[in-house]
Design a protein that fits this description.
N-utilizing Substance Protein B Homolog, Chain A, mainly alpha, about 0% strand, about 140 residues, about 75% helix
Length: about 140
């Protein structure tokens, strides 16, 4: 299925971009075009990655609060930048996108395998499993 491959690539691009913005401290909106110049991608990959990037950037505080609440035996400071961004993207997809929790979790595990440390997939799976039934949604306050 071409659509799922495009989305898989887009998730990796989104995590890589969010990682880079955190490391460099650059403004994400100003960095987006140069990212695509450095990492050219098909239109569908770029479009979905930008949807994820914009969605995560707009909701980073609420996503992080839910992630931090779901940590067991970890402090928020111990969560690596790669893992944090994999979790953000997956939670964004589960909470605000059209991606079923099972799919978002499986995709996040694959991104963690590709970009994270050896223990990343297991860690990501555990946190997202605790988040799969959490209602994030937009705040009414």
């Amino acid at each position: 299925m071409a659509g799922s491959h495009t989305r898989s690539q887009a998730r990796e691009c989104a995590v890589q971009f969010l990682f880079g913005v955190k490391v460099t401290g650059y403004d994400w909106e100003e960095s987006l075009e140069s990212f695509w110049e450095a990492f050219p991608s098909k239109t569908g990959v770029r479009a979905y990655a930008e949807t994820l990037i914009r969605g995560v950037a707009a909701r980073v505080a609420v996503l992080d609060q839910h992630i931090d609440d779901a940590l067991e035996n970890w402090t928020p400071e111990r969560v690596g930048n790669t893992e944090r961004n994999v979790l953000r993207v997956a939670l964004y997809e589960m909470a605000y996108g059209d991606v079923p929790a099972k799919v978002a979790i499986n995709e996040a595990i694959e991104v963690a395998k590709a970009l994270g440390a050896d223990e990343s997939p297991r860690f990501v799976n555990g946190v997202l499993d605790r988040l799969k039934d959490v209602h994030v949604g937009e705040s009414t306050t």
